[in-house]
Structures are given as C-alpha cells and as structure tokens.
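Consortium newsletter contribution from the modelling node. Members have asked for a concrete example of what our holo predictions look like. Here is one, prepared for the 6-O-phosphono-beta-D-tagatofuranose complex that several groups have been discussing at recent meetings.
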Amino acid sequence: MTAQSPHPFTELAGVELVSTHGMPSVRVRTQAASGLVFLQGAHVAEWVPAGEQPVIWMSEKAVYQPGKALRGGIPICFPWFGNHAEHKDYPAHGFARTHEFKYVGARATAEGGAELEFVLEDDDKTFAFFPHAFRATLRVAFGKTLQLAFTVENRGTDALSFEEALHSYFHVADVREAAIVGLSGAPYHDKVRGMAEFVETAPELHLTGETDRVYESSAACTIVDSSGKRSLRVEKTHSLNTVVWNPWTERAAQMSDFGADAWPGMVCVESANVAGSRIALAPGESHTLGVSVSVASAG
Ligand code: TA6
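And here is the predicted structure:
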C-alpha cells in the first residue's frame, strides 16, 4: 500500500479549538497575526496582523446562537446571495453561514502565520434547499495579509449552479471620511434605487447615505480610511462582482444585531459571483473564489 502522504492540515502551535460566546471556534495566535473563526459558517470573525489594529468588523450586538447568522466578520454566502429567487422563506444569503463546517486542521505559513481548513459537505438539510452533492472548502491564512480561498466542488452526477460571496465587513474609523477606490467605470445595480443599473463615474466612491450596490467588477479595491490613517487593499481572483454595503442610520436601527450607532465604523466590500455571474459546474468540476486583504498604514 503506498504510504499516505500526511494530511497537510493537522495541529499547529498557536492554533486551538475554543468556545467563544458559547460557540465552537478556532483561535489563532501567531507571530504574524491573530484571528478567530467560528465553525458555524467557517465564519472569520477576527484578523489582527502583527502591529496593526483589528481589520475585520464584528457587531457588538451580534447574536451567538447556533443557526443565527453572525453580524459582521466574513460570512460565506452560498449557494445563493440575498433572498432566494424562488423561495422567499429560504434563509437570506444561503445556508452555508448557518451550517457548521468541519474543522480539518491548520498548517504553518512561510511568514510565520497559520492557514486553516474548513469543509462543508451536503447533508439532508442542505439537500432540502440545494439538491446537489457538493463539497465546500474554506482555506483561510492569517498573516501579514489575510488570504481566503472558497472552493466549491460538484460531487454529483448532474450539473449545478450557485451564487457566492465572501461578505467581508471591514473596520473603518469613520465611513463618512473614507473612500473606496477601484470601481470607477464599473456598471452596478443599486439596491437602494430598485436595482436600477448605473455606471460608477466617481474615481473614488464616497458613501453619503445607505449604500447597497452590486458592481460588475473583477478589480481590486482600496478602502482609504482617512480618519483611521490606513488603507485596506482587497484583491480577489475569480470574482466578477463586488458588493459595497453600509446600512447607514435608518437601516442600521432596524437591525437589532447591528446597533443603531455602529454603522460609521464599518463598510462591506464583498467579493462575489451573483446573478448573471453565478457559477456553473459540471460533475467533478470545482471553482475557487480567492480574496487577499492587506493593510497599508498611511502614517
Ligand atoms: O451585501 C449587502 C446585503 O445583501 C444587504 O442588502 C443586506 O441585506 C446585507 O447584505 C446583510 O444581509 P443579512 O442577511 O446578513 O442581514
């Protein structure tokens, strides 16, 4: 029997299974960065590169109970985005973010960080919503940069298609003083204006009210957090949509897990494949959406 190569993801010093707010999670403490991932949804909730302030925003009013989507972090939206096209009673943004993933293990990265792997495979519950055999894998590397790779494999005998998003919530000192650079010229559908289509004409997007836009863009974005004296660079691969969201005053007040006065401290820049850019996989095919986040201090 050929020797099985040891699984690359095993135990790693500085990475431990813990309970956080009563929910199973993996805590990362390495020289390069610290982080936290809940097993529910393989939900990245913290990333603090060494020497930096926290980059990922989590609501102080988030509700930590099994089956309830966590407010903030990097929710995985899969296999649909927003409300289900046909079944309005289905959970918003799909079932992945409220399903427990299996934690496979960790491995060291070259820069002294840690890469973790989480897996979700179809079961009776997922089949009820999405009648396909699949394996969804999140690999997340905590280091000077945050690297995520979300892979979906069609393990069935029929073709399947899905929408997806890494719905990233980022910390900013004040969204009213921030700018998002990289979307100029991109068409977008504006959820705040009845999903009407526009083209982004501003070289720098400054949010001045509730903003909920699905851009057709594969471009990297930079969140210039002027008040925070830093910029966040969001690069992505195999993602044809970028979603920009801030609920602003009124919408935030309607979400009990958001907090009426928390919206100035965050902005979502989400890496997605939705609507006309949904992913189709033949049996045996896979697709990986990649995101890399880095911090540039504008000191
Ligand atoms: O990505 C933006 C968005 O689709 C908004 O429309 C808003 O619904 C947000 O996601 C949060 O959705 P959630 O289901 O997490 O409350």
